[in-house]
Design goal:
The complex is a heterodimer of chains A (about 290) and B (about 160). Chain A is mainly alpha-helical and about 290 residues long. Helix content of chain A is about 60%, strand content about 5%. Classes of the chains: A mainly alpha (about 290), B mainly alpha (about 160).
Chain lengths: ~290, ~160
């Protein structure tokens, strides 16, 4: 609980008290340095320049359910904002349901057609029932990624636990689908066809490891891309302040990095959705 | 690194699950049916329009075929009329020609007959005159009367010898 801070405390106190709900600590000029930010937390200003401080989870409203902490945090806030934005985007775009679409409706239809094509091409036969899930997954990651590029927002997908949870849902889902569809034959997936039998002791463990490592690579790819991009932006932003007039050069770098991060935000959402499609294809067709 | 703070995992996972399920519900219940409905309606409309176009094209084709057949009929009719007219004119020309030629030949024959009669008459007169002359010449030479019959015989012999 030590690292979870309330927003009020963030505004109200220059120094962070180690206990979240210790209201006595608020406003007191305590020299106790805060958890992980110990090196940079000498003053509030210095902490704001810490490139990693943007990833901190701050509790906005403390909620506890049956002894479990399910507080509404800044991460939760931006998830809610993201799903609200997606719903408004989709439902609002299709509200007129015009035969000849306007720009907004056209955008919705293009994204729909794009994902439908991706599912059709990568999952192949029998992929239709899973389209809503892939579509939801893609839009959720897309909106979380791209909203995180707006200054002062929080990037939900820059947390490994979020991307890992999404990847695990895909992995477990695909495995369950494969076992339900193919039964015991599912395990032939780990024996590549056209390989002589004496190679099996080598190939089967490799195949099993490469299968099990899928959720890790899937989640790490998204998480690392998001975190690296945002950290780099913050590092160069620090240079802009530090260099004064010469800060124009890191500013130029930031503009280019921002363009790159925009592409990455869109691309990683697509990559995540497409890999989910490919895993689904493996689950449905084995090879 | 704030990402490794395990205390934040549970609230994140909880809200991720809640948000994802809510979003999935909204997308499957509200967004996708609308999008699919609009796309289906557009597809139907386009198919319908294509069908209409097909029908109209068939109709246009029928009209064109009708026009062409009528045109062909009219042309053949015109051809027939022309042929008839040509035949008629040829027939009339032939009739006229025949009439003219028959008249001409009749007139020619008449003229020939007249010319022949005139010639015969002239020849008879010449023979008579020649007989008289010959009788007179012979009487003068002989100094007496000459039988007219002998003179006539001699003249006929002579004219036969000349022929």
């Amino acid at each position: 609980m030590g690292d979870v801070r309330t927003l009020e405390e963030d505004h109200g106190a220059e120094e962070q008290a180690p206990e979240v709900h210790d209201l006595e600590g608020q406003g007191v000029d305590s020299p106790v340095a805060h958890g992980h930010g110990a090196d940079a937390a000498a003053s509030h200003g210095a902490e704001a320049h810490d490139p990693l401080s943007q990833f901190e989870i701050k509790t906005l409203h403390h909620i506890e359910l049956a002894g479990f902490d399910i507080s509404f945090t800044n991460s939760a806030l931006f998830m809610v904002v993201a799903i609200t934005a997606i719903s408004v985007f989709l439902v609002g775009g299709m509200s007129r349901g015009a035969l000849i679409p306007g720009r907004w409706q056209m955008t919705v239809e293009l994204i729909y057609a794009f994902m439908a094509d991706t599912v059709r091409e990568n999952v192949g036969e029998g992929g239709r029932p899973y389209f809503p899930f892939i579509f939801t997954l893609f839009l959720f990651i897309l909106f979380c990624n791209s909203m995180g590029l707006i200054p002062y927002t929080f990037t939900v997908t820059s947390h490994i636990i979020v991307t890992f949870a999404l990847a695990l849902v895909v992995f477990v889902g695909c495995t369950v689908i494969a076992v339900l569809k193919h039964g015991i034959r599912f395990f032939t997936f780990f024996m590549p066809s056209g390989i002589s039998l004496w190679m099996a002791p080598l190939m089967v463990p490799i195949e099993i490891i490469s299968y099990l490592v899928r959720p890790v690579t899937l989640s790490l790819r998204l998480f690392a891309n998001m975190m690296a991009g945002h950290t780099l932006l913050k590092v160069f932003a620090g240079f802009v302040i530090a260099l004064g007039l010469a800060g124009i050069f890191p500013l130029a770098v930031i503009i280019m990095l921002y363009a790159l991060d925009t592409i990455i935000a869109l691309l990683q959402a697509y990559v995540f959705a497409m890999l989910a499609c490919l895993y689904l294809h493996d689950a449905l067709h084995l090879h | 690194m704030p990402q490794l703070d395990t205390a934040t995992f549970l609230p994140q996972l909880y809200w991720l699950a809640v948000c994802f399920v809510v979003l999935y519900w909204i997308i499957t219940r509200m967004a996708l049916p609308r999008i699919a409905g609009v796309l289906q309606r557009r597809h139907d409309r386009i198919a319908n329009d294509l069908e209409t176009v097909e029908n109209l094209r068939d109709e246009a084709k029928a009209v064109l075929a009708d026009y062409e057949s009528k045109m062909e009929k009219a042309q053949s009719q015109a051809q027939a009329i022309l042929a008839k007219a040509a035949e008629e004119s040829v027939r009339r020309a032939a009739k006229c020609e025949a009439e003219i030629s028959s008249r001409l030949s009749k007139e020619l024959a008449e003229t020939e007959k007249r010319v022949l009669a005139a010639k015969n008459k002239a020849l008879g007169e010449i023979d008579q005159a020649a007989g008289k002359l010959a009788k007179a010449v012979a009487e003068k030479l002989v100094g007496g009367r000459v039988d007219g019959k002998l003179v006539q015989q001699a003249l006929e012999l002579d004219s036969a010898g000349r022929k």
